[in-house]
Model the fold of this input.
Amino acid sequence: MLTMKKADYFLLSALFLLLPAGCDSRDDLSVNREYRLDFSSDTVRFDTLFSTVSSATASFMVYNNSNLNCRSLEVSLAGGDSSPFRINVDGEGGTTVSGLEIEAGDSLFCFVTVNIPDDGQTVPFMVADSVIFRFESGLAQYVQLRACGRNALFLHGRRITSDETFNSNLPYVIYDSLYVAPGVTLTITPGTELYFHQGAGLVVEGRVLAEGTSDSMIVMRGDRLDRLFEDLPYDLLSNQWAGIRLGSGSFGNLFSYCDIHGGEYGIVADSSGVDSLKFGMASSIVHNVSGNGIHTVGSRITVANSQITNAGGHCVEIVGGSAEFNFCTIAGFPLWWAGGAPVSLSNSLDGSFSPLIKADFRNCIITGYHKESITGILHDSIPGFPAGTVSSYSVSHSLLMTSDTLNSRFEKVVFEQIGDEGSGLANFHNNGLVDSYRSVFRLDSLSKARGIADTLSAKLWPADLAGVRRPLHGADAGCFQFEPSN
Done:
């Protein structure tokens, strides 16, 4: 027979085994103030966001690196329901999540989104909050949240049916395209920013006067302000919006000091004849598009002092009509694909003829991945037109990537070929393909484009795209004059 002492001992032992493990404070991080959780980041930062537009989801990890379990953890936003941020922890969302557990050596994700309210400001502003991790012991740990907001004017399927002016007070965010009706002029003032949603574009049947200045360019781009990867913002990607389309009845369009990038195409000009100017472009950039940078059919255009670069199709495609390019950098070095030849010249499209009356390239840089920077199909004769008037083009005082060095249409041209030392991308002062993708096309000191421009053109265009003065004699080809500081 067991003695009372031994019976008490076994009873106490059995009761101890039945107790929950969490009841011992030594085994529970939540009530042991000597331990802390670890976080993959102490601050979560969002890229600039337009007000009232939900952000992409950011995340951070929560680690229990101790040998104790963490139970009854509460995670909340310091700002509560009034916070513009929202969290989702372990599959539960809102502003507060309670009763969480993290086993010893385990971890969990915390997801964060933000929707910044419009506060009426015309300048970017900061919003902040923090995620609080509160333990049973009363101990609290924090992860900071930061986001920069911009208020904007949101246009949904907007049709402009009377003359209107867009100004730089607030950026414009455009959904379902912006349409300019026949006979109507849209004026865009210096510094105005137009952000187009995926698939949206600028469709013009009337006229656009987009005239910026050297220190206050007009920007047309996609509306994604976040990043695909940490080091790759969506702003450096093509195909983020449609582009600019000038209808057959649209004439007299002007683009000066405009930065147009990231679209499916840059500017497409529908066939409309050469009696009136379709569009003039000066001191502007068309960059990183998935299709053609400039595409015209049977139209008259002038382009000067401009950069047309990194198109997935052709940087410039001219089908008939009349085109003049002066002091332009036309370079095809897209980062993830070879693209088409920088320039394509043709006088027929889909079986229909359109005589190429003129395509003149003067003081230009025309180069890229392709060994022939000018391609296309030009018929020597077109029924109903005089011989010799349907396939006219010329290149002069320019740097040209080609093996066709005996072409009579080339005058005072400096030739380069694939494999030549200092050719192609090496003409530009950058750190390789990444800088070219970021639209860095300033001249390198050893570029063959240096000093080959003609004097008359230098008088007409005394300053380059960046405002640098060109010398009257020995100016550089392309839109940028070399500067030693670059």
User: Anything to note?
Assistant: The longest helix spans residues 4-18. The helical segments are 4-18, 433-437, 455-460. Confidence is low (pLDDT under 50) at residues 9-25. The radius of gyration is 31 Å.
